[in-house]
Each structure stands twice: as structure tokens, then as C-alpha cells.
């Protein structure tokens, strides 16, 4: 396995698996923040201290395997080009913050890309584990096992009263962020999402865009995650999030049924117009592509379009991003050049589906 494999495949292998509620929930993620007890936290550590952490992970975990997560590839951020970093961010294998920290920053990525362990980001360790669809409980179980595996060789910074100690106070306690990525086009169309976001925030959860904190929602994709990490157990946090997600799934299904009943012709027109734009356009901006892909994905989920797979929609969502386009072209592209290539790749991919 090499870095090239991560770069070439727009859709991670685990994303191809069928899963519960995958028509609405794209993925489930558990992220655990951890630090070494006997080392200065990354936010104030000098380069030599951070380099020791990086070397430790390279020595102890490069090409190791844990359960079904085989052959962890050790990736040094400083060795990556700007485009390579952008591609790994677009695939959610590293965070935008890690990509901006070239010195002593690294990541361990499993062969199936389901696990990514970021080194020297905001904390010494950020464990990320993904599952397709709505599988938060299973993701939490596996994240615990992975955490225990790392702890066999690492003495974590932990306080009996406060829990796991982290660089940011908002992560102290469990150090956990549980999140789901959801496609909610019907709630967006019926303007219900704008009313739901404040209510979700009042429950101690937060709604963000596709790339987490600071990002906007594109293509009706929303990331729902917990804000509270202190005073609740990991199981309680996941249970609270699951309760809200189940309600959102129900509301989205009801909104889809309502639109189909009240204005099916308008909905089908919207879906097939978007399909036509994707199939025949020669220039395509990223936001327009995301909007059209969202409409076509809804058409696939409602069996209005039966010539396109859900996997193709997942793949195109990543493939149209700036990093992947430039990696595909093997060259730095201007915005106009990216728009032309984006349209070309979408036409080609949809042609393969047909």
C-alpha cells in the first residue's frame, strides 16, 4: 500500500458497503482526542518535542495492523505537496488543521481508510474511525478497542475528576466527538432545516458543513455532532446524538413523502434537470455541481432515477473537489480550468453508469 492509493480512489473502500439508513445518513464517525501524560501539548511544544512524538508513532505503528484494520500507512505531512494534502482533507483522512501543520505532523491511515490516527494536530493523538450509514454504536465499540490498543504503549494524560486532558477545554472529559454526515435535501427544500438547527444546538449538539468546524453546508450535506464532552459518558453522548439523528431521519422521510404527494412533477423536473446539467454541461462550478448531485442523489433514493448508483454519487461528491481535480490533471489549475475538468469528469462518470 502506498500514498498513491489514497490519492487515486475518490471513494474509500468502507464507503462501498451497504448500511442502515444510508439513503439519509452517509457516514458515522467517532473521534477521540488523546495526549501523552509526560509530554508538552502540541499547542505550546517546541519542534524537538513534537518530533519525538512523530518518531514514536512511525517506529511503533507504521505498517502495523489491528483487528480488521490492516497495514497502517505512516504519512508525514511535511512530505506532501499542497495538492496531496488537499486530497486527504477532501477524503476526511486528515483535518484541515493537520494539513496546515507541516512540521512533525503525521497520520496513520489503515488500508481500507476506515481509521485515521492524526499525530500532532491540536492534540498529540486524534483517532478517527468511520462507518457507512447510521452505525454510531458499532463505531464507538471499535473506537474503544482501537484506543485500548494504543494505550498499551502510551500513558495518556488523564485526571480522575476531569477525564482525558486535551489542548482545548471543550474536549476535556471523554475527549470524544461523535458525528454523522446526513443528506437532508427535503428538509432544506421545505425550509424546515433552518428551524431545526437552533433546536438541535439547544440540545448540546452542533450542525456543521461537510468539512466540520468552520465549513458551510454544500449539497444539503450536514454534519451533526456533540458539543459536550465533560459530565457525560461516551455511551450517553452517543445515545443523545442517536436520538436526534433518528428524529431527523423521520422528518426527512416525511418531508420527502410530502413533496412527492404535493408536487411530484416539480420534484421530478428538478431532479431530471439536474441530471441533464450534470450529463451535458461543459463548465461546472463546484456549488452548482454539489447542488445538482444532491438533487440526483435524492432521485436515486426515491427510485425516480434507476440508472445511477448511490456509490457513484458518493464518489462524485469527492471527485469534484479542487484537490482531486488537480491531482487528476497532475497540474495546478485555475478556477476556470477546474470548472471545465469537473464537468468533463462528471460526464464521464455518469456515462460509465449508463
Automatic annotation (TrEMBL):
This is Protein-arginine kinase. Keywords: Allosteric enzyme, ATP-binding, Kinase, Nucleotide-binding, Transferase. Pfam families: ATP-gua_Ptrans. The gene is mcsB. A motif (RDXXRA motif of the pArg binding pocket involved in allosteric regulation) lies at residues 338-343. Its EC number is 2.7.14.1. The keyword Repeat does not apply. Belongs to the ATP:guanido phosphotransferase family. CDD domains: bacterial_phosphagen_kinase. The keyword rRNA-binding does not apply. Catalyzes the specific phosphorylation of arginine residues in a large number of proteins. Is part of the bacterial stress response system. Protein arginine phosphorylation has a physiologically important role and is involved in the regulation of many critical cellular processes, such as protein homeostasis, motility, competence, and stringent and stress responses, by regulating gene expression and protein activity. It comes from the Bacteria. Appears to be allosterically activated by the binding of pArg-containing polypeptides to the pArg-binding pocket localized in the C-terminal domain of McsB.
Amino acid at each position: 500500500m502506498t500514498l498513491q492509493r489514497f490519492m487515486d480512489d475518490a471513494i474509500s473502500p468502507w464507503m462501498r458497503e451497504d448500511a442502515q439508513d444510508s439513503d439519509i445518513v452517509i457516514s458515522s464517525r467517532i473521534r477521540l482526542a488523546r495526549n501523552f501524560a509526560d509530554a508538552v501539548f502540541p499547542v505550546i511544544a517546541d519542534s524537538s518535542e513534537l518530533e519525538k512524538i512523530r518518531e514514536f508513532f512511525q517506529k511503533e505503528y507504521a505498517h502495523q495492523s489491528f483487528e480488521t484494520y490492516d497495514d497502517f500507512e505512516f504519512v508525514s505531512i511535511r512530505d506532501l505537496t499542497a495538492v496531496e494534502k488537499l486530497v486527504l482533507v477532501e477524503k476526511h483522512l486528515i483535518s484541515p488543521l493537520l494539513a496546515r501543520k507541516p512540521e512533525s505532523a503525521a497520520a496513520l491511515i489503515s488500508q481500507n481508510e476506515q481509521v485515521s490516527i492524526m499525530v500532532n494536530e491540536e492534540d498529540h493523538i486524534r483517532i478517527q474511525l468511520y462507518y457507512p450509514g447510521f452505525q454510531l454504536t458499532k463505531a464507538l465499540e471499535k473506537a474503544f478497542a482501537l484506543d485500548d490498543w494504543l494505550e498499551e504503549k502510551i500513558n495518556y494524560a488523564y485526571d480522575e475528576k476531569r477525564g482525558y486532558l486535551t489542548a482545548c477545554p471543550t474536549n476535556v472529559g471523554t475527549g470524544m466527538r461523535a458525528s454523522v454526515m446526513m443528506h437532508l435535501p427535503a428538509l432544506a427544500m421545505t425550509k424546515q432545516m433552518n428551524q431545526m438547527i437552533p433546536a438541535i444546538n439547544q440540545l448540546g449538539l452542533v450542525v456543521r458543513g461537510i468539512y466540520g468546524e468552520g465549513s458551510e453546508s454544500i449539497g444539503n450535506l450536514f454534519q451533526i455532532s456533540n458539543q459536550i464532552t465533560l459530565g457525560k459518558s461516551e455511551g450517553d453522548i452517543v445515545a443523545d446524538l442517536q436520538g436526534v439523528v433518528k428524529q431527523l431521519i423521520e422528518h426527512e422521510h416525511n418531508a420527502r413523502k410530502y413533496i412527492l404527494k404535493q408536487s411530484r412533477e416539480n420534484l421530478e423536473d428538478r431532479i431530471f434537470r439536474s441530471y441533464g446539467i450534470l450529463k451535458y454541461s461543459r463548465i461546472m462550478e463546484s456549488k452548482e455541481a454539489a447542488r445538482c448531485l444532491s438533487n440526483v442523489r435524492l432521485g436515486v433514493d426515491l427510485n425516480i432515477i434507476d440508472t445511477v448508483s448511490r456509490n457513484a454519487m458518493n464518489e462524485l461528491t469527492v471527485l469534484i473537489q479542487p484537490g482531486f481535480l488537480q491531482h487528476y490533471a497532475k497540474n495546478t489549475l485555475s478556477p476556470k480550468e477546474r470548472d471545465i475538468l469537473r464537468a468533463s469528469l462528471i460526464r464521464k462518470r455518469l456515462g460509465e453508469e449508463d
